[in-house]
Amino acid sequence: MIYVTGVRLQAHHVRTATFDTRWRGLDPSQVHDYLNRIADELDRLHRELTTTNTEAERIRQALRQWQSRHAGCRHTAPGSPNSRWPR
After folding, report:
1. What pTM value is reported for the model?
2. Quick check: 9 and 46 in contact, CB under 8 A?
3. Does residue 26 lie in a domain region?
4. Is 18 helix (H, G, I), strand (E, B) or coil?
5. Does residue 49 sit within a domain?
6. Is 51 helix (H, G, I), strand (E, B) or coil?
7. Containing domain of residue 57, as a range?
8. What's the domain count of the chain?
9. How confident is the model at residue 10 (pLDDT cuts 50, 70, 90)?
10. CA-based angle 46:41:38, to the nearest 5?
11. Which pLDDT tens digit goes with each residue over 59-69?
């Protein structure tokens, strides 16, 4: 089995993993079925991570825009002398 250090595990790493054979070892078809399930889950998680990072960046940009638009605004409590709210 090949393990690459410093690189995130990707689905294709799992799908292409190879194992030494032994006289009394695990059933190769069960091992490959399990590795395929893990690879599918990795694919799903990577897609979810990409979607989440994209959404987080969109929210960060919206917050920056909001902060820029409201940089000069001052908050006053309702009922204070400078408030636009009636007492």
Report:
1. 0.60
2. no
3. yes
4. coil
5. yes
6. helix
7. 11-68
8. 1
9. confident
10. 125
11. 999 999 999 99
